[in-house]
Amino acid sequence: MTVVGPLEPLADQGRAGNVYRFVAAQADDPTSAKAMTLKTYGATEAGAEHARHEWNALVCLHRERCAVPPPYFVEPDMTAFACPVVAMDHIPGESLWSTLQETPGSQRTRLLGEFVRTLVALHRIQPSTLRGPAPEVDPLDSLGQEISEIRRDCEGLHAPGMAGVAEWIQENRNSVHPATDVIQHRDYHPWNVLVGPDRDLWVVDWNWGVGDPRFDVAWTCSLLARSGHDDISTFVKNDYVRQSGNPLESFSYFEVLATIRWMLNVLLPSRSDAPKGDVALQDFRDFLVGPIEQAVRTIRTNTGLHIEVAP
């Protein structure tokens, strides 16, 4: 196959301005042209590892008939492109969030139910399905590893109150009954789900891991609440309980866990040594102000602890 025509940025599917549409065709048969999606990653070893990590999820989950775009090729070593890339079939359509804004009443509820059903289906796939560069997680202590990584990153951030939250998470761990590990998406929300031409859902941006399903649900619900959509957050939690039969015990603990993990994910990059006056970085920091304030309130409500932090 060969690339035909320029790369076209996909605004509604871009997530971070790094997703493009292109056309591939057999070199000797222009009629075989097919729309594809190209996702780029940072031109670093970490970016290459991210590309391999997501490629592994796409290949293995597509084989299990999971709702992922069929993968086409991966180039992690930056020989063919200036950065690591993954190519996959192009899903024509828009994000689930955009579709929800245009969908009324009962149809909107049905779409949200499908959104939850897709997550429940993912959590029912055996983690052993994902082979290759899988995370090295002790199946008996995935929660312990999650906590260790949070405590390490809290120490690196030096934000007043953050270490206290990490200690709270550690001290309250024994009150949480263990659950069977599942495949976690780790960033599941309506902006990372595409609606295809037949109204079918396709999940993208796989920052996957293996661990407690309550973390995945709490991540989704907390993100929706931080974005000002408490009604959808509540619906997702209740419908997950209904569809999965999992009562989501100790859910507030996982809300804290997911919220502090999100804060660390966004705060550490926002404090990078980017050139002074970097407009994109400043825009990112400005965008984070409201969600971080909401995250601080969530943590205070659930733990009684206060964090002093700014992007």
Report Rg.
Answer: 20 Å
Beta content comes to 15-25%
What structural class results from the helix and strand content? alpha+beta
For the termini, the CA-CA separation is 44 Å
Major beta-sheet overview: 5 strands, antiparallel
**Count of β-strands:** 10
Determine the fraction of residues in helical runs and give it as a percent range: 40-55%
Instruction: Name the average pLDDT.
Output: 88
Number of helices: 9
Low-confidence parts lasting 5 or more residues at pLDDT below 50?
none
Shape: globular
List strands and helices in order, with pairings.
Layout: E1 2-9, E2 19-26, E3 29-40, H1 45-63, E4 71-75, E5 85-89, E6 94-95, H2 96-101, H3 105-123, H4 142-157, H5 162-171, E7 182-184, E8 193-195, E9 201-203, E10 209-211, H6 213-226, H7 230-244, H8 251-270, H9 279-303
Antiparallel strand pairs: 1-2, 2-3, 3-5, 4-5, 6-8, 7-10, 8-9
Q: What would your notes on this structure say?
A:
- By secondary structure, the chain is α+β, with helices and mostly antiparallel strands.
- It is built from 9 helices and 10 strands.
- It has helices at residues 45-63, 96-101, 105-123, 142-157, 162-171, 213-226, 230-244, 251-270, 279-303; strands at 2-9, 19-26, 29-40, 71-75, 85-89, 94-95, 182-184, 193-195, 201-203, 209-211.
- The chain has a 5-stranded antiparallel beta sheet.
- The mean pLDDT is 88.
